[in-house]
């Protein structure tokens, strides 16, 4: 369709099925590519709407300076919407933001002010305070305040959500959304919950962000720095609406960034770290859902903004995030194998349990081996064969504590470990591998679990 100008571009974002990364999951998984628009970000419609509304209300006119603080993507969209219409744009950006986004803002014609990322909210050097001070001291300056502007949420409520509903026919059960200001997740949730309250709205943020604690009604713990961009917050935005959100989950830098790389190599989806976080959260949840579930993942930023970071092997290695891309033989992960198991809870022995108690646990749960766990840490293991050899030498040992007879602890792997990596561990004279989950729990995988996963495939 012929468009008269860039600002008239409209229509739903592409919605594509995840074929390979979700091949071993029972639910279907779809990616909503919200960044496929002129700006390469999820903020294009908001930026255009904010500029148009401000013009219509007489708040701005060409020649004025539009100021905002930004993590980069919103600033790119704002500059693209404003500079061609005759406005000066001044963007305040924390120094940890990728150089690609900083350079693109300048290339569009915006002036960029860099602030230290270590400056906390309320401090004079923080990006928010610097932006507000610039607005107060510049002649004919307008504060766009995109992260807090009501239009940022209403655009998703009035445009994005209805389009998603039309694309899917409303036939999805879960929606995973990266959370920064909460405008996207809250706007989508408000409209979709009216259409179908059963749709589960899941917000995704990095470890150290504030929303999960706030959602649970808990005291916000001390925030920690992360490398993920365009996701998470140090304080709650006025736009986030927990009443239309069912859950807030957190994803580590490691898992999010590697999922972004996996998306490019396995699905030809070139998306940034916030998109990788949302997709990782969906795949993690999908491992525990049935075939009647259908998951949609909103992806908000282009991978082209992170060539110096996420898609740079050297940077990933320096940060300790680098993971070699899994081969086709090793695509099944521990997380997915756990999702196929009927038993979800780890059966384990405490050091003070007697051999008789341990053997009874084995019989009741139909297992031949158990990890020995103390205060959440695996310190050893015990098997039926070991108990038999003990009793042959000393038939009175059944009343002795298992801690005196336990064998080496099982190897511990992360949920993203591939089946080939798990197999290698199981070849190292161990009969099981413990998987350390993000919530602090552990689960056990054995050779038979791996065989079941391969035959299920």
TrEMBL record:
<dbReference type="InterPro" id="IPR001926">
    <property type="entry name" value="TrpB-like_PALP"/>
</dbReference>
<dbReference type="Pfam" id="PF00291">
    <property type="entry name" value="PALP"/>
</dbReference>
<keyword id="KW-0663">Pyridoxal phosphate</keyword>
<dbReference type="GO" id="GO:1901605">
    <property type="term" value="P:alpha-amino acid metabolic process"/>
</dbReference>
<dbReference type="InterPro" id="IPR000644">
    <property type="entry name" value="CBS_dom"/>
</dbReference>
<dbReference type="Pfam" id="PF00571">
    <property type="entry name" value="CBS"/>
</dbReference>
<dbReference type="InterPro" id="IPR036052">
    <property type="entry name" value="TrpB-like_PALP_sf"/>
</dbReference>
<feature type="domain" description="CBS">
    <location>
        <begin position="341"/>
        <end position="398"/>
    </location>
</feature>
<protein>
    <submittedName>
        <fullName>Pyridoxal-phosphate dependent enzyme</fullName>
    </submittedName>
</protein>
<dbReference type="InterPro" id="IPR050214">
    <property type="entry name" value="Cys_Synth/Cystath_Beta-Synth"/>
</dbReference>
<keyword id="KW-0129">CBS domain</keyword>
<dbReference type="InterPro" id="IPR046342">
    <property type="entry name" value="CBS_dom_sf"/>
</dbReference>
């Amino acid at each position: 369709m012929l468009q008269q100008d860039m600002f008239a571009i409209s229509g739903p974002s592409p919605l594509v099925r995840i074929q390979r990364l979700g091949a071993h999951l029972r639910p279907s998984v779809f990616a909503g590519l919200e960044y496929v628009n002129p700006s390469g970000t999820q903020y294009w419609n908001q930026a255009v709407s904010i500029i148009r509304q401000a013009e219509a209300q007489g708040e701005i006119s060409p020649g004025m300076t539009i100021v905002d603080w930004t993590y980069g993507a919103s600033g790119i969209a704002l500059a693209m919407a404003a500079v061609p219409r005759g406005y000066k744009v001044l963007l305040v950006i924390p120094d940890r933001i990728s150089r690609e986004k900083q350079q693109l803002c300048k290339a569009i014609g915006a002036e960029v002010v860099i602030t230290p990322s270590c400056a906390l909210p309320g401090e004079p050097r923080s990006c928010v305070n610097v932006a507000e001070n610039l607005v107060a001291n510049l002649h004919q300056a307008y504060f766009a305040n995109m992260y807090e502007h009501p239009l940022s949420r209403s655009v998703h409520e009035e445009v994005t959500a209805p389009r998603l509903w039309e694309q899917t026919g409303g036939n999805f059960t879960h929606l995973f959304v990266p959370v920064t200001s909460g405008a996207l997740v809250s706007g989508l949730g408000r409209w979709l919950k009216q259409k179908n309250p059963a749709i589960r709205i899941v917000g995704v943020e990095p470890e150290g962000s504030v929303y999960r604690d706030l959602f649970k009604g808990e005291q916000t713990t001390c925030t920690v720095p992360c490398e993920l961009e365009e996701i998470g917050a140090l304080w709650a935005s006025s736009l986030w609406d927990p009443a239309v959100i069912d859950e807030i989950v957190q994803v580590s830098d490691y898992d999010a960034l590697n999922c972004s790389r996996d998306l490019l190599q396995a699905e030809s989806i070139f998306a940034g770290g916030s998109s990788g976080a949302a997709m990782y959260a969906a795949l993690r949840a999908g491992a525990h859902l049935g075939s009647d579930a259908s998951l949609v993942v909103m992806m908000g930023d282009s991978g082209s903004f992170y060539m110096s970071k996420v898609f740079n092997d050297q940077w990933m290695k320096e940060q300790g995030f680098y993971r070699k891309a899994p081969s086709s033989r090793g695509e099944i992960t521990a997380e997915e194998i756990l999702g196929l198991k009927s038993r979800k809870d780890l059966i384990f022995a405490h050091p003070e349990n007697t051999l008789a108690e341990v053997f009874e646990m084995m019989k009741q749960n139909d297992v031949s081996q158990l990890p020995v766990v103390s205060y959440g840490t695996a310190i050893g293991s015990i098997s039926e064969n070991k108990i038999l050899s003990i009793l042959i030498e000393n038939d009175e040992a059944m009343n002795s504590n298992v801690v005196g007879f336990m064998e080496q602890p099982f190897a511990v792997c992360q949920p993203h470990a591939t089946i080939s990596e798990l197999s290698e561990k199981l070849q190292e004279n161990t009969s099981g591998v413990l998987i350390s989950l993000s919530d602090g729990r552990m689960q056990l995988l054995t050779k038979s679990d791996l065989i079941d996963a391969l035959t299920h495939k």
